[in-house]
Amino acid sequence: MRTLAVIVFWILIWWGASSIVNREVMLPSPIRVITRLFELSLTSVFWLSMALSLARVIAGFMLGLLFGVVLASASYKVPVLRYLFSPLLTAIKATPVASFIILALVWLGKNSVPVFTAFLMVIPVIWSNVYTGLSNIDKNLTEVTKVFGFSRFKTIKILIIPSVMPYFFSGAVTGIGLAWKASVAAEVLCTPSNSVGKMLYDSKLYLESADLFAWTASVIVFSIILERLFKYLISKLGKKYNTGGSNFAGNSN
Amino acid sequence: MPAIQIKSVSKSFGEKIIFKSLNMEFPEKGIVCVMGASGFGKTTLLRLIAALDSPDSGEINFYIHGNKIKCPAISVVFQETRLFEWLTVKENCTVVMDKHKNTSYADEILEKLYLSNEKDKYPSQLSGGMRQRVSIARALCHGGNIFLLDEPFKGLDFSLRESVMNTLVENINPEKNEGLCIIVTHDIREAVKIADTIFVFNDTDEFKIVNIDIPRQTRDVNSIIEKNFSISF
User: Fold this and answer.
1) Cβ separation of B84 and A162 shorter than 8 Å?
2) Number of domains comprising chain A
3) Closest partner CB to A158 (pick from B73, B84, B122)
4) Beta carbons of B85 and A149 less than 8 Å apart
5) Which structural domain, as residue segments, surrounds residue A38?
6) Cβ B82–A250 below 8 Å, yes or no?
7) Which of A90, A129, A233, A238 has a beta carbon 3.0–4.6 Å from A167's, enabling a disulfide?
8) B233 located within any domain
9) What residue spans of chain B are helical by DSSP H?
């Protein structure tokens, strides 16, 4: 109820501001944007663009997860790799997304740039979270696995995965948001066909501000749905490890 | 032939010398209690036997029926309970069991330790004493030739101590009745009640051995203490 009241409050502010400005090209009214969003949602282009943009986000995100976990595990196991990769990952974190997008446009085809950008955004987050999780594995429990003669596989299943999961989940939730923003930004700059980014770019090009707002609103809605869905999946998996989703595991004593 | 032979073992942590040249032999079966003031290296001794720490010099040898073996099956009850928080009480016990072993054995042990109603709970839902009993149950479920218990009865209700001790005695290698159990304790009465042999550390590397040949059920704890430890009641 409170959330709804807050939303209504800001829509009223928006409506008031658009009435004062009174130029649709500068600030369209909420009613005009909602009407345009409804009209767009009845077209196949809208759904196709949304689906393909979402597919690019998920592809980049999954690749980021995979490489992030592999890199973190390798650097934990071989400290030299940590020293080698650490500056690279710091550089990725510090570099503006636009620089990567432009570079990727030179290296790759425009359809691959959003995937690559999402991938680059996810990797450092997952890497550092999983690495921290591995470093924080309870040494007392490691001794328990040694004393009771656990195999390597059993140690991974019983100790390592449950210990690292809370850190992984927390990184993945941050990563999905970053991947979505970076991927849409890349689409705006490299305009692959049937993409939300291209639609945003076209709206700006033809000064269709209502369309620009409608597409942005749909990106926000899809991003929230995706994040909620992801958190739901995590809470289901979290219960399996008795970690309560993204909360960190308690101590062993 | 002993089950464990400790030969000229030295161990220090930085400047602190724990053992200079320790020589000890543990019998093939029975319950041995190790006592001594804090800092005499009782826990270090268990960690060396469990291969969780390595001696600076010297060697530790293991034997079964007189044959030297490299890696005996060892079960440990740590001073801290060290349970897997994401596994239930029963899972904490079955996870250490050999896959060919029937998991109903875990139910049996949990029942003996009054934990049947807690078997589906997570460790965070248990009291300190219950967690301690789960830790003992886990060691019994794992089984093995050698049990190393570091103050296993600490934190247990007085009323439960006796029955937990009895469960321990009954279940140390129940199939063959030949397991060796080494218990570190500070409680002299506890040691006299349960042990076949007591090692009392007086100083680094120096200890007194007290053998108790009287059956556990008929022991007069006070008189054994008066006779062997110069404490009168």
Assistant:
1) yes
2) 1
3) B84
4) no
5) 33-240
6) no
7) A129
8) no
9) 42-49, 89-94, 104-112, 128-142, 158-171, 188-194, 221-229
Task: Pick the residue of A137, A139, A144, A240 with the most B CBs within 10 A to test the interface with B by mutation.
Answer: A144
**CA A21 – CA A30 distance, rounded (Å):** 13
List, for residues B190-224, the tens digit of each pLDDT value.
899 889 999 998 877 788 888 888 888 888 888 88
Each residue of B29-55: pLDDT tens digit? 889 999 988 878 899 999 999 999 999
Q: Answer whether B83 sits within 8 Å of A242, measured CB to CB.
A: no
Domain assignment present for residue B232? The answer is no
pLDDT in tens, B136-192: 999 999 988 899 999 998 888 888 888 888 888 888 765 566 789 999 998 888 899
Distance from CA of B71 to the nearest CA of A (A): 10
Residue A108's pLDDT is 86
Domain enclosing residue B182, as ranges: 4-227
CATH assignment of the domain containing B82:
3.40.50.300
Q: Which residues lie closer than 8 Å to B61 by C-beta, 6 or more apart?
A: B4, B5, B7, B68
Distance from C-alpha of A98 to C-alpha of A186, rounded to nearest angstrom: 8
How far B95 CA lies from chain A's nearest CA (Å)?
Answer: 8
Distance CA A91, CA A49 (A): 32
CA–CA dist B204, A124 (Å, integer): 51
Question: What's chain A's average pLDDT?
Answer: 88
Domain count, chain B: 1
Q: Which amino acid is at A180?
A: W
Can you give the length of chain B in residues? 233
Q: For residue A230, what is the domain's CATH number?
A: 1.10.3720.10
Q: Can you tell me the distance from the alpha carbon of A166 to that of A247, in angstroms, rounded to the nearest whole number?
A: 6
Question: Would you tell me which residues 55-74 of chain B have a C-beta closer than 8 angstroms to some C-beta of chain A?
Answer: 73-74
A162 vs B contacts (CB less than 8 Å): 84, 86
Residue A89 located in a structural domain: yes
Q: Which of B50, B85, B95 sits opposite A252 (nearest CB)?
A: B85
Q: Note the Cα B196 to chain centre separation in Å.
A: 13
How far apart, in whole angstroms, are the C-alpha atoms of residue B52 and residue A146? 8
